[in-house]
Write a structure and sequence with these properties.
It is built from 12 helices and 20 strands. The protein has helices spanning 12-23, 48-56, 61-65, 104-119, 169-174, 272-277, 306-309, 318-336, 340-362, 368-377, 390-404, 408-413, and strands spanning 5-8, 28-31, 43-46, 68-70, 73-77, 83-88, 100-103, 124-125, 128-136, 139-146, 151-157, 159-162, 182-195, 203-208, 212-218, 228-237, 251-252, 283-289, 297-298, 301-303.
C-alpha cells in the first residue's frame, strides 16, 4: 500500500479529496471509522466557489437538485422582523455558478456513491479509524484501529491526508500541544420542518440579534402544495466561562428544552414558535471551532476540512472550504506530484488566509451586521438606513465574501483549479 495516498475520514472533505485524486490519476483509499455510511445532519450551504469545483468533478446540477435547492437570496432581519440587509445569491447575483442549500446527509451520500462508482467498492474501508502517524523516510506509517475489538496495526502510505474532522487524530499527532476545542457560548438547536418557503421561495434568512437568532432556509424545492423541507437553526449565546458541560457534542432533544427562548419571535410574515412546534426533529450542539494553527502540513501529512480549520457556521462556508481544500491540494499534486512539496504549496496558499476566516467567523462572520445593529439601536428600528447606511452594509458584506473566497468578480474570472479532463 506504500504507493497509495491514505485519506483519514470519509466525510465531505475526504470524499471530495478521493474524487479529486481519482480525477488526476493518484491512487488513494479512504479509511472511515463509521461501520456504515448514513445520511447524518441537516442543512448546509454550498457556496458558488465550491459548486464550481463540484461541477468540475462531474457532479451535475441535476445531482445537486436531487439533494437541495439553488439559493436565490441572503437576508438579515432585525429583532422587530424588519429587513436589515438582503442581496441576491448564486446565479441571480451574477455568479457563473449557483449557491446550493442542501441536506448535508444527502450530499454526503451522493459523494459516497460517486466514489464507489468511480474508484470501486474497495476505495472506502469502513470501520477503520486512523489514530495517528509516524514519518518514516519517504513514506508515512499510518496507525489504525479496525474491527469491533479495536485491533491496532500500521499501514504504509505515500501521503496521509487528515480529513477526520474537528476531533482529528491526525491533527492531534501533528500538533500535540494544541488547545482544546473552543466554545464561545453559543448553543444551536437544529432541525427541519415542512412549511411554505419564505420571501423569494429560496431565501436564507437570519433573524434576531447576534446573541439570540434564528436561521431559516429551504433545502428542497416546493412540492405541488407549495411545501418544502425547511432547515432551521435556533441559537442563543450563554455564559461559557465553565466550558461546555455536556459529554455530547450533538444530541437529539425535545422542543420543550429550548422553544421558550423564541416565544417573542412572532411577526406578520412568520410565527417562529408555531413553525418549531411542527418540526420533525431537533438536535442540540454547541457552536465550536478550534484555534488556528501555524501549519496544516507535516512533511508527507496534510490536513483538510474541519481537521484543518473547524469554524463557526456563521458564514455558511465550512463545507464549501473543505471542497475547495481538496481541489487545491489536488491541483498542487497535479503540478508537483503526490509529494510533500505539493503539500507544502497547498499549505502556503491556504493556511494563513483561511485561518483569518476562522477568526472572522468567531466574530460573527456576515452576521456581524447584527452586532452593529444591536450596538446602535438594540435590534429594533424604523428605517435601517438611519442606523447602518446602505453603503456601510454593502462594504461589510463585500469584505467577508472576499476573505472567504467567493467574491463574484474574482471567482467568475478565475481559471479552473484543475483543468477539465472530460469527466
Amino acid at each position: 500500500m506504500t504507493d497509495l495516498v491514505i485519506i483519514a475520514g470519509g466525510g465531505i472533505a475526504g470524499l471530495a479529496q478521493a474524487l479529486t485524486l481519482h480525477q488526476i490519476g493518484v491512487p488513494c483509499r479512504i479509511l472511515e471509522s463509521a461501520r456504515q455510511m448514513k445520511p447524518l445532519g441537516v442543512g448546509i450551504n454550498i457556496q458558488p466557489n465550491a459548486v464550481r469545483e463540484l461541477y468540475d468533478l462531474g457532479i451535475t446540477a441535476a445531482d445537486l437538485d436531487g439533494v437541495g435547492v439553488s439559493a436565490r437570496e441572503w437576508a438579515l432581519v432585525g429583532l422587530n422582523g424588519k429587513e436589515v440587509y438582503a442581496e441576491p445569491r448564486g446565479l441571480e447575483a451574477g455568479y457563473r455558478w449557483p449557491q446550493y442549500a442542501v441536506h448535508r446527509g444527502a450530499l454526503h451520500m451522493l459523494l459516497y456513491r460517486k466514489v464507489i462508482e468511480r474508484l470501486g467498492p474497495d476505495a472506502v474501508r469502513l470501520g477503520t479509524r486512523v489514530t495517528g502517524y509516524e514519518r518514516n523516510g519517504d513514506h508515512v506509517d499510518v496507525q489504525i484501529r479496525t474491527g469491533p475489538d479495536g485491533e491496532a496495526s500500521v499501514l504504509k502510505a505515500r501521503l496521509l491526508i487528515g480529513a477526520d474532522g474537528i476531533h482529528s487524530c491526525v491533527r492531534a499527532t501533528m500538533h500535540p500541544d494544541q488547545p482544546p476545542i473552543h466554545w464561545g457560548g453559543a448553543v444551536m438547536w437544529r432541525g427541519t420542518v415542512r412549511a411554505k418557503p419564505l420571501r423569494t421561495g429560496s431565501s436564507f434568512i437570519g433573524l434576531g440579534t447576534h446573541r439570540h437568532r434564528m436561521v431559516i432556509y429551504p433545502i428542497s424545492a416546493p412540492d405541488p402544495d407549495g411545501m418544502a423541507l425547511i432547515n432551521w437553526i435556533a441559537e442563543v449565546t450563554m455564559d461559557s466561562n465553565n466550558g461546555w458541560q455536556s459529554d455530547s457534542w450533538f444530541r437529539e432533544v425535545p422542543l420543550s428544552e429550548f422553544i421558550h427562548h423564541f416565544d417573542a419571535f412572532r411577526y406578520a410574515w412568520l410565527d417562529v414558535p408555531e413553525m418549531l412546534g411542527k418540526a420533525d426533529c431537533a438536535y442540540e450542539n454547541p457552536m465550536i471551532d478550534r484555534d488556528p494553527i501555524g501549519t496544516w502540513v507535516d512533511g508527507p501529512v496534510a490536513l483538510i476540512g474541519d481537521a484543518a480549520h473547524a469554524m463557526y457556521p456563521t458564514g455558511s462556508n465550512g463545507a464549501s472550504q473543505a471542497i475547495v481544500d481538496a481541489r487545491i491540494l489536488g491541483a498542487k499534486m497535479l503540478k508537483h506530484g503526490a509529494t510533500p512539496e505539493a503539500l507544502a504549496h497547498y499549505d502556503a496558499e491556504l493556511c494563513g488566509p483561511i485561518s483569518e476566516v476562522v477568526l472572522r467567523n468567531r466574530g460573527a462572520g456576515p452576521f456581524g451586521l447584527l452586532n452593529l445593529l444591536d450596538e446602535r439601536c438594540g435590534g429594533t428600528f424604523d428605517n435601517i438606513d438611519d442606523v447602518i447606511p446602505a453603503s456601510e452594509r454593502q462594504e461589510f458584506m463585500a469584505k467577508y465574501k472576499a476573505t472567504a473566497g467567493f467574491a463574484m468578480t474574482q471567482l467568475n474570472n478565475a481559471p479552473q483549479t484543475i483543468p477539465s479532463t472530460g469527466i
